[in-house]
Structure formats: structure tokens, C-alpha cells
Amino acid sequence: MPSTPDYSPENREAAFAAFRAQHPCYEDTRILDDLRSREYARLDALDQVYLDYTGSGLYALSQLRRHMALLEEGVFGNPHSKNPTSLAMTHLVEQAREYVLRFFNASPEEYVAIFTPNASGALKLVGEAYPFAPGGRFLPAYDNHNSVNGIREFARAKGAEVTYLPTVPPELRLDSKRLRAELEHTQPGSHNLFAYPAQSNFSGVQHALEWIAEARAQGWDVLLDAAAFVPTNRLDLGRWKPDFVPLSFYKMFGYPTGVGCLLARKEALQKLRRPWFAGGTISITSVQGEGWHYLLEGAAGFEDGTVNFLNLPAVEIGLHHIAKIGIGTIHERVTCLTDYLLRQMSALRHSNGAPLVKIFGPADTTARGGTIAFVLNDPEGIRLDYRKVEALANRENISLRTGCFCNPGSGEIAHNLTREEMAAIFGRDEPVDFETFYEWSRREYGRAPGAIRISLGIATNFADVYRFMRFLASFVDKPHTALHKVQVEYPMYDLLRDSA
Ligand SMILES: Cc1ncc(COP(=O)(O)O)c(C=O)c1O
Description:
This protein has helices at 12-22, 31-38, 41-45, 61-73, 84-103, 119-129, 146-149, 151-157, 176-184, 210-217, 249-253, 266-269, 312-325, 327-347, 386-395, 408-414, 419-426, 434-445, 462-473, and strands at residues 49-50, 111-116, 137-140, 161-162, 167-168, 173-174, 192-197, 221-225, 244-248, 260-265, 282-285, 293-295, 357-360, 371-376, 398-399, 401-403, 451-455. By secondary structure, it is α/β, with parallel strands linked by helices. The chain folds into 2 domains: 9-60 and 326-415 and 450-490, Aspartate Aminotransferase, domain 1 (Alpha-Beta Complex), CATH 3.90.1150; 75-324, Aspartate Aminotransferase, domain 2 (3-Layer(aba) Sandwich). The strands form 6 sheets. It has a 4-stranded parallel β-sheet with strand order 4-3-7-8, with helices on both faces. Helix 4 runs antiparallel to helix 13 (312-325). The chain is globular and about 80 Å long. Bound molecules: pyridoxal-5'-phosphate.
């Protein structure tokens, strides 16, 4: 009979010692423990286990202090003017822009950094302005976030062919044979856009960056969604040359929200045809003629209205924070802890030998990041309701994510949902929400198309993952009926340190 490891608080030190022996590189990341106690102390003060870094990163105290000091000491006006307060702000905005390029090793000769409200805003800029046309193609991966999936609406409306590229279970990687075949299939003179994530926000899979050069060599423009990749991995644009790279800064360092970026190759940017103009994007226009306006060159032509100017210096502060720690150090720590989790989670068994956890995606850390999607099964193999698992996690102060994570394609593959089954739900007269879809799928097909996701990041430590394992181990030998009485409710949490 398999025995469940001891995840008690008393055994933590021994478990940590065993973990360090197995992951000697963890020692090189000890600077992050120091930071955890100084910069992210609120996590422990509020007794919170934060495991939703793919949802949002966490900010360090010093980021806030630096930003507030700058605002307290300066006088800043709208950067669209030419007065002293405006010019002071313009200087900081342009300095932040330069640093963004430097951080990603993107040559200013080759790339521009366009500030957007978030990654979705960056994706919309590309989608609405890409020269889709009959004869051209849009090739998105199944594994895309919905903000990439949405581009297909622009492609379809303009008559381009849309082909989804499936991922293959159990690892949920791109089907390389199929991808190669699709890349070969373009018409001369057409515009073709291939869009895939560097790291899946569902399974943590890292899709090969080598596809970028291969696709470009076949005449494709490549959109590499880096939103889930850059918080814990180096993206070197001196080496990889995607045409468009959307990202959100809060996912990297938590603060500020409301600022993202489109890193775009200048040559590719020239292809885009904006469907409108706004204040700040044109040099002049006239109200007396049809379509008279001159779009500004480079980033300015794509930044609608006033940029989030007071927050842009905080982007530079956040990037410096990451650079000072070293993205390699963050990557190393997340990889060690992910390895621990993958091993421990897969080893959890009920007394009858049946596995408790089913992980979607790679079982080890090869070409995968620190995002793990999974479901729990009871000893008879019956799926535990993810909503009840989340409700129980909430009681333990564990923040995880459940549902489909805005990534329907990976969910459909992971849960074996067929086109016919999905067509039935989309054939209804009324709009359907995820809960209804989930219940319907359970009833009609005996499938439970929801998963649980944990994701690690800059401030994660061994204590966090150990406590999460203790929580998971509490489901060993629990029949699914034991969760029936768990109430799924969402009380207001007051997570302010002074009121704790
Ligand atoms: C891979 C990926 N792309 C795009 C997005 C969209 O980011 P935002 O909501 O900040 O626009 C997310 C958000 O989770 C993501 O994980």
C-alpha cells in the first residue's frame, strides 16, 4: 500500500534538506529568500501562499517606494506638450522605452517598443491593422490565450484563411510535422501571420523559439505571445527575431498594472494599416477632406491618445528590479520548485494505488515553465469538482486559479472535447457561461472540462510549495462525495496588513 509523504510543518526542515540535496542549484538563488523577507514580507505577514503568478506577478516594496519618491519629488505634465513639465515627463517615458528595448536585447535599429494598456491591447493593435486579405492566412496555435484567438475575427472579416494548429497530448506541444506542412502552404504575394505563445498560460509548455526563424524563412510574419514567458525566462531579441511580441508588465513584476507593450520589428510594423487614428498618432489632419491625415512614424503612430505616462517610469523601475536579481536566478528557482512539485504531485497515490493528480502537459521540467495545470481524481477515478477544491484552497489562504484560464484550445485537447460536442453548445440560442458549459459537459458527456492551475514566480519559496503539497495530500483517499457539502462561496477577503 503506498504511503503519503509527511507534509506536516514539523517535517518541513527535513523535507527542505532533502529538496536541496536533490536541487543543489537552489543554493544559487538564495538572494530571493532575502528579498522575500524584505520586499515581499506581506505574504508571510498575511499568511498567504500565492500561486497565481501567471495571473499576475507580485511587486517588491522598493518598486513602490522608488516610484512614489519620483512622483513626490517631481512635477510632470502630459508628454504631448513642449513645456518644462511635459519635457521632463517625455524624457522619463523615452528613457523607459529605451530600457525596455535594452532589457530584451532588442536593437533600436531593428525593434520599437510601443506602450499599450496590456498584452491584449498589443495584440489588438496587430490584429486590427495586419493586412489580412483573401489568399492570406492566419495560423494560430490551439494553445493560444483568447486575446490571440480574437485576432481570427479580423482575419475572417478580411477574407483570410484561418487554420488552427493543434497541440498533441500528453505533453501538449505543437505538432511539428503539421506545423512544417502548414508553413509551406502560402500563396506568393500574400500576407501570412503565425501566432503562438512562447510559454503556455495553460500547461506551462514552452514551444520552441526555433519556429520563429523557420516560419519567417517561409515568408510568414511571426507573432510570439511572450506574456506568460517573460516573467521567468530570458527573451533575447538579439537572437530570436519574432515580428511582434506582446506582453504585460504586471505579469513580470506586479506593478504597475495598466501598462503593456508591443515589441515590433520596424520592417513588420510598416506592413500594418491602422483602421483609425487618434490624438498623438498623427502629425496633422484636416476636417475638410476625406481621409486626410499623416500617421506618425514608429511607436508614436500606434500609441492612441495619452500614454499611461505617470506609470511608465515604474516600468523601468520594475525592469531594473528584475535585472538586479537576474532573470536567470528567477528562472533557476522556479525550475527547481517546479521540478519538486511535478515529482511530488505525480507520486501522490490513494491507498488503492490510484493516482490523485493528473497533470496536463510535460511531466518534467524539460522545455516547460513554472505553470502546472491539473485535476484531482478520487480513489475510484472520479474527478473532484475544481470549484470545491478552490473553495478549500481559499480556506487555507492558497491562491490558485481554476477554470479554463482563457485558453480554450488547450482545455479542449486536454479534456478530449470534440468539435461536435463544442458545436452543440454553440448551437444554443442563449449565450452560455463557463459554469453552464461545465455542468452541461459533465451531464451529457461525463467530462469535467475545468482544471486547476498553480504558477510560480519571483517570490515563491519552498515553504509555499510544501504547504501546497500538504493541501493536496489532504485529498488522498477522499471520495468525491466527501466534497458534496463544501460550499462554494466567495466571501470578501480583507487582505490589508494593518487590518489583519
Ligand atoms: C499567454 C498570455 N497572453 C496574453 C494574455 C493577456 O494578458 P492581459 O490580460 O494582461 O492583456 C495573458 C494573460 O493571462 C496570457 O497569459
